[in-house]
Amino acid sequence: MTYPRPAAVIVLAAGEGTRMRSATPKVLHTLAGRSMVGHALASARALHPARVVVVVRHERAAVAAHVAEIDPRALLADQDDIPGTGRAVQVAMTALDAAAQAEVAGAAQGTPAAGTAAGALLDGAVVVVAGDVPLLDAGTLGELLAAHHADANAVTVLTTEVDDATGYGRILREAGTGDVLGIVEEKDASDEQRAITEINSSIYVFDAAVLRSALGRLGRDNAQGEVYLTDVLAIARADGGHVRALRTDDPLVVEGVNDRVQLARLRAELNRRLLEDWMREGVTVVDPATTWVDVDVELERDVTLLPGTQLHGTTVVREGATVGPDTTLTDVEVGPGASVVRTHGTLAVIGRGASVGPFAYLRPGTVLGDDGKIGTFVETKNAQIGTGSKVPHLSYVGDATIGEHTNIGAASVTVNYDGVNKHHTTIGSYARTGADNMFVAPVTVGDGAYTGAGSVIRRDVPAGALGVSAGAQRNIEGWVARARAGTPAADAAARALAGDDTADLSPQARAERERAARAAAGTPQTPPPHLPDQPAPLAEPTTTSADAGTNAKDSTR
Questions:
Q1: Which pTM was predicted?
Q2: Residue 554: is its pLDDT beyond 70?
């Protein structure tokens, strides 16, 4: 839907948020993979404003750095010691007017028009939003903008109805017309005004000229000694402007976060809405109560999310893939038809039809090719695993390249770290490596090569060769008694050797001796199966009374 383009959006993010009881600034707390101020900026940018300005104060450095990271084009305005939302918007308008003047000066540099820059001021609609209202969406803001332009208002405020309006500013309407007379804060309200259930959302659209004029006339004569932005509405009306409200039927869209209880409630609600949207797009979510999806996750149709799945960041799951149960993926791409079970993965790519897990750990840089497999208790990092290749179980593959259709034996490790530097292992296509192999990097195993079980591969294995490093097994008799004297192992070995006079007996004779020893010690024996002397007689045929006479006659023949 197309909405009128505002001249600017002001995001208020200067508050301390003491009720959060956190060292982290309130607006930097996250839900659905995005900070609260990030949600505000995303909704603001969806309106395509000419400028966006964020007002900062508490923990300015942290908030400013975060804003610069997620929206480098946003302006920053610093609120001073004067408290109140009115003061925050004053400093924001100063920054916006300065930016407008700089733009005019830059465009007219070197021309006679350059002297007009000082008189350039922001003109048009100015949207003001709070940085702690995470469910506010661009659609709602767009409707507010549309209503503002359609009615040629001086100010348009977004409102809602709640059962308990405690703590909110109340909307005062004119009888008959429904126009907004003003907004009264709870601490300044009468008992009659406190009974009003229509509340201010702190989300507005102002005409820039009206806002600028009213801001210059704001005072601090109120119960809190703050500069109230709400006073602008009464000033604008007194100046003859239209002040109206757009009421939303969804209170959660305009609910702010003041403590962690509200944050948790809105986080769950946002997740519920995201999952509902995806299910309507053709995604199966088996258990929405245990499935969490961030706002920037992308899902295609016929994806199945099993219980306990968490998809974070910019994770993409392609058509027909199944993720879960109990899987957490962050910035991972899952190919069409792939299966990812009980897996933790970050910054990895899983190919079409590939299989991962259960109990796999994909670290950054893992790329699994189409129809490949990373199996149970396998960890990978910075590893390129080719089409159809498999690392089935109990292995670590780090800093490695594996070709196509290769099988890595169980309990294999690419030994990539020498204590100072990381080194690379290359294993070719159609190779077969034995179980319990150590590949001491840098090393290469060629195409079609094999390696023997238990080998430590320190040198390159040519294509088609068999790499073996283990020698013939050698038993050192008596080593435990000499090297581990006094240990339980040594005592057990001594007892076994002292009683071993059966070395020359056949297996059957050894078994008979063991059975006799158990009998002598009173150990219960398993009795042999019972075999009857005679086969069990066959059951007599069952007859009816009607057949009795016939049977008797037959027996005399």
A1: 0.83
A2: no
